[in-house]
Design brief:
Oxidized Rhodanese, domain 1; seven-stranded mixed sheet; 4 helices; about 40% helix; elongated
Length: about 180
């Protein structure tokens, strides 16, 4: 022992110190390896989730339905059919559906529109909708964004034959067709 009460390092003490240092270094290396592997696993998981989201089309996968001018879109709990302005124009002369304007605020409508119910009031005004859940309802808005929300709301309400004007009134007018204004609110 030295004067201050500490044991002097012996050659076996030096070996022990080197052994402790080697163990600590090995533990640190294993810890770094585990962290690196965990990071790689997280990166792979994130990549896999992103791939699934991109491949699934963010929850709505348009697919051809076999009829020109329409595509089927997968929603939560069902599907709806998107139609082009040309397809809607073909459907109007033999109209066998409820044409529903869901644009808020009201800015006009396609001639032949049966109902105006803002998309965010569909649930509250469900009694204004056809009582038969299999009735065909074609929704539209200005651009297609609010009508896509409306189509999902109709699915949530139990309707099974939902159609949507792809691109809304903007696409309708771009195709050379006009709107009428019936002053609804």
């Amino acid at each position: 022992m030295s004067r201050n009460g500490r044991t002097r390092a012996t050659s076996s003490g030096s070996r022990q110190s080197r052994s402790i240092a080697a163990d600590t270094s090995a533990r640190n290396s294993r810890r770094r390896l585990r962290i690196a592997l965990a990071g790689a696993a997280v990166a792979v998981a994130v990549f896999a989730v992103l791939a699934v989201v991109v491949l699934s089309g963010f929850g709505s996968t348009p697919s051809s339905s076999g009829t020109a001018g329409q595509t089927v879109v997968q929603g939560r709990g069902g599907t709806w059919t998107n139609v082009t302005p040309d397809r809607l124009a073909q459907m109007l002369p033999n109209k066998d559906f409820t044409l529903l304007n869901v644009k808020t605020p009201y800015v006009g409508e396609i001639d032949g529109t049966d109902l105006y119910i803002p998309y965010d009031q569909l649930t509250a005004r469900a009694s204004d909708l056809p009582s038969a859940k299999a009735a065909r309802i074609l929704v539209y808005c200005r651009s297609g964004a609010e009508s896509a929300i409306a189509a999902q709301t109709l699915l949530d309400l139990g309707y099974t034959n939902i159609w949507n004007l792809d691109g809304g009134m903007n696409a309708w007018q771009s195709s050379g067709r006009t709107l009428v204004n019936k002053g609804r609110s």
